Amino acid sequence: MTTIPMPTKEKFIVPIGPQHPALKEPGHFEFAVDGEIVTDATVRLGYVHRGIEKAAEARNWTQNLYLVERICGICSHIHALTYSLGVEKLAEVEVPRRAQAIRVLVAELERVHSHLLWFGVAAHEAGFDTLFMYSWRDRETIMDILEALTGNRVNYSANVLGGVKFDVSPEQCKVILTGIDFLEERTRHYLNVATSDSMFLQRTRGIGITRLRDAQRLGIVGPTARASGVIRDVRVDAPYAAYDEFPVQMVVETAGDLEARFVVRLKELFESFRLIREILANLPAGDLQVKRFPRKIKAGEVISRVEAPRGEVFYYIRSTGGEQPDRLKVRTPTLCNMASVLSLSIGHHLADVPMLLVGIDPCFSCNDRGVTISGNEGNGRWTWERLRQFGIDYYARKV
Amino acid sequence: MTNFSLTNEWNNVLLKVKKWARINSPWLIHYNSGSCNGCDIEILATLTPRYDAERFGVKLQGSPRHADVLICTGPVTRQSRDRLLRIYEQMPDPKFVVAVGSCAISGGVFQGCYNVVGHIDEVIPVDAYVPGCPPRPEAIIDGLVKLLTAIQKGAPVEPPAITQLTEEIYDAA
Amino acid sequence: MLPEFDNKSGQSQAEQALSRVEQLLETWREKLNKPQPSERTLVGGENPLIFPYAKRRIMLTGNGRPDVLDISVHPDELLEVVQTLLDGDWGYLITITGLDLGPEAGEIEILYHFAEGAAVVTLSVRVERETAVIPSICPIIPSASFFERELVEMLGITILNTPNTDHLFLPDDWPADTYPLRKEFNTENQQAAN
Fold first, then answer.
1. pLDDT digits (tens, 9 = 90+) for A15-30
2. Do the beta carbons of residue C194 and residue B112 sit within 8 Å?
3. Fewer Cβ close by (within 10 Å): the C or N end of chain A?
4. Which value, to the nearest 10 degrees, does the dihedral of the CA atoms of residues C75, C80, C85, C91 take?
5. Which domain holds residue B130?
6. Mutate: best of B81, B84, B114, partner C, most C CBs <10 A
7. What is the mean pLDDT of residues A72-89?
């Protein structure tokens, strides 16, 4: 048997996605590996790029509310909220306080649903399917609440331009509070699991450490950044809707590893529970909607920033005085965090990559508003014999 | 191996056994070809304890080669069109497709977007449609059960005709 | 140790951030887009020196005052301004928005949004529509790469020295010289071409 010389420039590339059991959404990654260690990473997005920014220019202000809600099914309320806040600012419409409080209520309920969903998926990536099933079972509580409140489990369509669609009745209050009590107890249990289960900690503690300096350099946002000690939360920095009446305490960790990201998100749940209780107890009186909302919006430009479960959502809306926006720019948190995964994964084991990826809570439909195997990276087809011999040689050299 | 054909009687028995097995354990593969995630989280919710689709033998599979049913969500974007076709072609026969959600059925709100090619059945044949934006997990289960009932009631699905190529493989063996 | 933060002080922090950036960008002071002062500014004991104007070109949602500043920058000065912000340790780059002002105006505007707390600073760069060329800010802010790739494929802007100009969102077989966010791009025509 002839030995095959160690390839000098050839890289072995492991493509992940777009259809992959670990990723429920399509995104394509290519990881160049040296044995088990990732040496290079690239991403190709665009599998779910539909052209929403352009489509928005052809629809009127109200239709766009339903379009932006479908940018992302997980944080649909956040997108509709960011859009409504911006358009209301442009139209110079003052939204009733009660409506703003209900918006915040739904936003926080959605944060609970999103973080629990993420927690389950992250546990699934770690190979801890039991935890995945438990957290998704508990998540159904919040889905029931959202359904009771809004009429739908996903895409609640709670916002209209100038207010909200529904009120919160005392019976609904009771249902929400019971659900929240149950979830708070469960979250305490999950926090305990995430910080004490030794098997789980092996997958999270010390993995994917992002230092404060790097987090700032890479422009990471949201809970991922707060796990690295970045003190940044739009709800606190620039309160919108009713967050000035119901202030939030920011949750910040400094370790910067995957464990810190779990802890930040789980602790944020407690903050959300507290906020939901506070809003329900002190719901301001008033109307749900403004009487009249103009069909044509005054010419102007507006920036709208909102803290989604994954980080800061940024909208830039420009009106030229017509029935349609002239430009709608959406910047979602995943795009900012995606770059961090790529640079983080270098030097880690390939097996840790799904965990790193899920650590930022990626949302590809937000992101794309694509990856093909290029084949010109010098990764020619290897026969089994060649691959086997390469492995033998590689480890012989290592020892 | 020259004499591969079975007698008619035995062939029928074999088909019945296959159908029985197929209906009792449909393995799914899920592909998001441009969806907003709403349907995807509901599909995932269908498999979790509250709805527990696994009691129908349903299992979510990672590889298209192991799957019987392709669950599609979302409109088909230009870039994911080829992937969708590839996944469909990689699935072994007989294969079934369920289109979940308004976008998968008609394009939904994304009709007319420049990067959207169209809905699922413009790209691959679809056997069952589950409407909703997004459909509730109950609706997805209902869609699956309807598909399985249709398979049960329908004629036994014939295996694909043995092509020249497969015959050569058998001959070589 | 984490620095202290306080919910109540958000507004005053934004004021400080904004006055700090005004100092940083002293050189470009005459370029500040200063719209007309409005009576809304001087409600409730504000510091008139820091906020001499309220109704700016770009508005900002949120419950505080409009803590936003926008500056027109010449493409040649862009790197210098960005470097000044970075050296002054001011804020972070939120995103870059490309804006086609239409065939009549004949210009494309590129907006660089920076934020610190509630304060947002927008640098606006205008270039010719036909020969849209801007320098890359990636050497200063590496994370801008994704945003610049988006500008290249969506608006057909040439960005000098940007590390990667591959398609990010659009498919690889996307026709060349077709930029979806330009105003002449027509969805119906594009659908027919599919």
1. 777 776 656 667 788 8
2. no
3. C
4. 40
5. 26-152
6. B114
7. 90
Structural domains of chain C in order of their starting residue, each with its CATH number: 12-186 (3.30.460.80)
Cα separation, A307 vs A166, whole angstroms: 23
pLDDT the model gives residue A81:
93
Range B161-170, long-range pairs (CB < 8 A, 24+ positions): B162/B4, B170/B1, B170/B4
Residue A279 in this model has a pLDDT that exceeds 90: yes
Strand partners, A301: A318, C58
Residue type, B57: G
Return the bridge partners of A34, or none: A37
Report the residue from A24, A71, A133 with minimal CB separation from B32: A24
For residue C137, what are the CA distances in angstroms to A338, B113, C32? 19, 31, 21
Mean pLDDT, range A157-173, rounded to an integer: 91
Has residue B101 been placed in a domain? yes
Number of domains in chain B: 1
Surface of C (78-117) touching A: CB under 8 A = 92-95, 97, 99-100, 111, 113, 115, 117
> B129 near B146, Cβ under 8 Å?
no
| Alpha carbons B147 and A333: distance in angstroms, whole number | 39
Nearest Cβ partner for C146 among A86, A243, A339: A339
Residues A242-252: tens digit of each pLDDT: 898 899 999 99
- Interface contacts B/C by beta carbons within 8 Å: 21
For the stretch C87-106, what's the b/e string if a residue is b when 16 or more beta carbons lie within 10 angstroms of its beta carbon? Answer: eeebbbbbbbbbbbbeeeee
Give me the sheet containing A311-319, strands edge to edge: A325-331, A311-319, A300-308, C58-60
Closest partner residue to B113 (CB to CB) among A47, A52, A140 is A52
Q: For chain C, which chains pass the contact test of at least 3 CB pairs under 8 Å?
A: A, B
Q: C64 pLDDT band (50/70/90 cuts)?
A: low
* Residue ranges in chain B whose pLDDT is less than 70: 1-6, 155-173
The CATH homologous superfamily to which domain A52-331 belongs is Cytochrome-c3 Hydrogenase, chain B (1.10.645.10)
- The closest alpha carbon to A276, from A36, A80, A113, belongs to A113
- pLDDT of C55 above 50: no
DSSP β-bridge partners for residue A14? A31
CATH code (residue B135) = 3.40.50.12280
Residue A51 CA to residue A48 CA, distance in Å, equals 9
**Which residues in chain B have their CB less than 8 angstroms from residue A76's CB?**
36, 38
A58 in contact with B, Cβ within 8 Å: yes
* Residues A235/A166, Cβ–Cβ less than 8 Å: no
Q: Which residues contact B128 (CB under 8 A, 6 or more apart)?
A: B96, B97, B98, B99, B143, B144, B146, B147, B150
Q: Where in chain A are the domains?
A: 12-47+337-398, 52-331
Determine the 3-state secondary structure of A383 from DSSP: coil
- Exposure letters B50-67 (e unless 16+ CB within 10 A, then b): bbebeeeebebbeebeeb
A59 near B CB under 8 A = no
Contact between A312 and C57 using a beta-carbon 8 Å cutoff = no
